[in-house]
């Protein structure tokens, strides 16, 4: 079967697992990196012209920005183990981490700008939100929401979807710079499953079906959403985790529901 250009499989089990850049994705804003470090390993980068949100998917590490020690951060040993720790790093800075346990670290990025400061985003900074009803329930951890006033472009969120439920559903899109009705945002999904041998499905499609791809997603996969609707479906026995990175011309999350499916919200 042909491989979807929107589905990115992990390249290895350790080290740099994913390296999505605007150039590789064929868009303008969102970047996503994923690193798995063993205890005692170190890693770091310069942000250059981009701002970064470092999300601790699992494990612990000692973080520093331009030599300022932020201490040991992290507590969950699985992405299904509660709220995340994260660090925001603005453009023009250097960050580094020393893994104090095995560490899975996501590097979410977007174009930088403005006068923002490096900061730790601790669990509970934003309350967990439960959305949907019935088989459409999912649990949301906002890491960098649009109303935090703390970044130039980045929007970052984690979602836990229980087994057998749908998520990012009813289908919605955010691909038109047409505020206040809809904002234009590129989006990436980093998927995990519990237990890890699980799988789910994601469809990315437009109203005119000029883009229409349905993908089987497995533990560690990344899905790119350049435009269109992008619902996710889990399978029985396997809970889903995904980490979303969004960015566009304006730091506003305003979506448009597929009209034929809006009845599901009543």
Automatic annotation (TrEMBL):
Q: Among its keywords, does the record have Transmembrane helix?
A: no
Q: What keywords appear on the UniProt entry?
A: Isomerase
- Quick check: keyword Isomerase in the entry? yes
InterPro entries (alphabetical): Deoxy-glucuronate_isom_IolB, KduI/IolB_isomerase, RmlC-like_jellyroll, RmlC_Cupin_sf
UniProt protein name: 5-deoxyglucuronate isomerase
A molecular function GO annotation: glucuronate isomerase activity
Name any Gene Ontology BP term: inositol catabolic process
